[in-house]
Design goal:
Elements lengths: L3 H18 L3 H14 L4 H15 L16
Helix pairs in contact: 1-2, 2-3
Length: 73
């Protein structure tokens, strides 16, 4: 069963994921952070927040296809 809390988190997460795929990283980060304000240990929101911060600092190439390439192990 999905709780109202989880439903709200999923709305923010899914919106953030859409912005991420559109390379709108600042907007995506804000949405993932809203998701984390609901459930602070949500793993996917934590990971995408990190990726957004990386891409804000070091944007991907213009022809970026949405795939995240790890630079360290």
């Amino acid at each position: 069963m999905i709780t109202p809390q989880m439903k709200e988190l999923l709305e923010y997460y899914n919106s953030g994921l859409q912005k991420y795929k559109e390379a709108k990283f600042q907007e995506a980060l804000e949405l993932f952070q809203k998701a984390l304000s609901i459930i602070p240990d949500d793993g996917p929101s934590i990971e995408y927040s990190k990726r957004c911060k990386e891409f804000i600092q070091d944007p991907p190439p213009i022809d970026w296809d949405g795939v995240y390439v790890m630079k360290t192990k």
